[in-house]
């Protein structure tokens, strides 16, 4: 590693990585339990976080519900929270205080997508530090629908295997490419903390 010129006494983070993924973190039966949390009465057309203007079909088209923190869902908060804290400890070292917002369940049908964006931005989403996405559908269940990250000029796809958990800093550009066949489901969680310093 090249020495830093004129160091300010801060350690560097050699383990930092744009994306971390854990294949097979959730079992098939965990995933069935998660999918059953879909709350059709409170299903919404996804809105853009951090804005009050509502939906923008050119950036995002998908349906979402939010998982309330209650006795039958608390296990999912625990499993994602523990993994996020461990990953943060090993890789990022951010200050984390808890989840930002309830867990989001998303359904992408044919024609649905979420174009390039960051989960971090002005206003309340400036508290987001780490984003977590869980693949709830097997690769063979849909076509298109790749979760991709912009790493320099390359769109890098992550594994599509059911039960994979992907963790990444909320400021990294990412997208879900349009679904051309089938249905893709995911859980997205955000871990939040005080402003960057
Ligand atoms: O569905 C996913 O895996 C990711 C969706 C996403 O980027 C988001 O909801 O912010
Ligand atoms: Fe996102």
From TrEMBL:
Gene3D superfamilies in the cross-refs: q2cbj1_9rhob like domain
Listed cofactors: L-ascorbate
Xref: InterPro entries: Oxoglu/Fe-dep_dioxygenase_dom, Pro_4_hyd_alph, Pro_4_hyd_alph_FE2OG_OXY
Pfam families linked: 2OG-FeII_Oxy_3
Domain Fe2OG dioxygenase: 99-193
Keyword annotations of the record: Dioxygenase, Iron, Metal-binding, Oxidoreductase, Vitamin C
Species of origin: Roseivirga thermotolerans
Residues spanning the signal sequence: none
Name of the protein in question: Fe2OG dioxygenase domain-containing protein
Keyword match Amino-acid biosynthesis: no
């Amino acid at each position: 590693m090249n020495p830093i010129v004129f160091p300010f006494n801060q350690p560097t983070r050699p383990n930092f990585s744009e994306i971390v993924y854990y294949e097979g973190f959730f079992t098939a039966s965990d995933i069935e339990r998660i999918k059953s949390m879909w709350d059709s009465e409170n299903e919404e057309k996804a809105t853009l976080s951090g804005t009050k203007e509502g939906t923008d079909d050119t950036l995002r088209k998908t349906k979402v519900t939010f998982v309330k923190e209650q006795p039958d869902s608390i296990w999912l908060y625990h499993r994602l929270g523990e993994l996020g804290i461990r990953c943060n400890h090993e890789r990022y070292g951010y200050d984390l205080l808890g989840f930002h917002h309830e867990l989001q369940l998303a359904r992408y049908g044919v024609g649905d997508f979420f174009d390039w964006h960051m989960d971090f931005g002005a206003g309340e989403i400036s508290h987001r530090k780490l984003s977590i996405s869980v693949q709830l559908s097997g690769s063979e269940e849909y076509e298109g629908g790749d979760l991709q990250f912009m790493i320099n000029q390359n769109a890098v796809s992550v594994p599509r295997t059911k039960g994979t958990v992907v963790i990444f800093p909320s400021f990294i550009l990412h997208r879900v490419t349009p679904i051309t066949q089938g249905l893709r489901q995911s859980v997205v969680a955000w871990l939040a903390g005080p402003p960057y310093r």
